[in-house]
Structures are given as structure tokens and as C-alpha cells.
Amino acid sequence: MIRIIYASSATIEFTESKLMQLLGKARQNNGELDVSGLLLYAKGNFFQILEGDEQKVDALFNKIEQDDRHVSVVVLDRAEIKKRAFPNWSMGFRNLESFDRSQIRGYNDFLDRKLTAEEFGDIGDEVISLINQFRTI
Ligand code: FAD
Known about the structure:
This protein is an alpha+beta fold. It has 4 helices and 5 strands, in the order E-H-E-E-H-E-E-H-H. Helix content is 33%, strand content 28%. Strands 4-1-3-2-5 form a 5-stranded mixed sheet.
């Protein structure tokens, strides 16, 4: 198994209903592929972890990367894993716009900014640490 963690920037305004539409499809597809993970959204930026069978995760990521609802897709980590961090979530989701950020350890203002692809690359460790705070095991 592998995991891929990436960051990207939305190209459209993601209302709650657009996010729910995206998630509905993602959960349905991921369930069929046995891919699990988490999607975070804040200030027009996405952070996502996808985990599961290597070929399935790579193929899914290639599809997601081409989705024109986001750009500047930057891979922050791609690694082999023995165990999933989000085994029970076909795609967990947190909209950090409406999330009590005081609950986020080491809160970083990158959540408030619209970052460029290059800047995402520079803060990979912080994004990974943020995602890990939501893990279910
Ligand atoms: P279809 O059955 O043809 O579904 C396509 C559907 O996707 C459309 O009906 C529509 O609801 C939606 N859609 C696609 N493109 C657009 C668009 N430009 N504008 C509006 N709606 C559109 N997919 C997953 O399967 N798993 C994921 O974890 C996942 N995560 C994503 C994370 C992000 C940040 C983004 C932007 C997309 C994500 N997607 C995910 C969606 C993915 O990019 C594909 O749109 C989706 O997998 C297509 O599903 P399908 O092959 O079943 O195609």
C-alpha cells in the first residue's frame, strides 16, 4: 500500500453544496476502490491524503490531478505504508473554514492564505502534521 499527500488550489468557489457533491462522488468511487483518506479545505486550498493499493491510488491521483476544479496540485509525500491512518473513511472531510481552529495544535497561518504551488512545497511537513491530527487510529 501507499499514501499520497498533496495540496492544491481551487479554481471555482466551493460552496458547501459543491463540496458535498464532490465528496459524494469521491466516497462512492473510493469505497469501490478500497481507497481511504481525508480531504481538508481552507481558503480555497485543498489538502488530501489518499491511501490504499499502490496501483489504485496512483490511478485515482492521476484522475484527480486532471480535475479542472483545482490547479497547482503539488505532491507533498508519496510513501509505502504498512497500515492506513484513516481505515474507516472512504474520504473523511473537514471544512477548516467552519472548524474551531483553536483545536488545531501548532496552528499555522498557512490555512488563512492562498498559497502558490511553490509555497505548498515549502510547507509539506506542516501539512502532513496537520493531516495527522485528524487520524482515526
Ligand atoms: P463521472 O461518473 O463521470 O463523474 C463525474 C462527476 O464529477 C460529475 O457528474 C460531477 O459531479 C463531477 N465533476 C467532475 N468534474 C467536474 C467539474 N469540472 N465541475 C463540476 N463537477 C464536476 N474523486 C474520487 O473518486 N476520489 C477522491 O478522493 C477525489 N478527491 C478529489 C479531491 C479534489 C480536491 C477534487 C477537485 C476532486 C476529487 N475527486 C475525487 C473527483 C475526481 O477528480 C473526478 O471528478 C471523479 O473521480 C470522477 O468520477 P467518475 O470517474 O466516477 O466520473
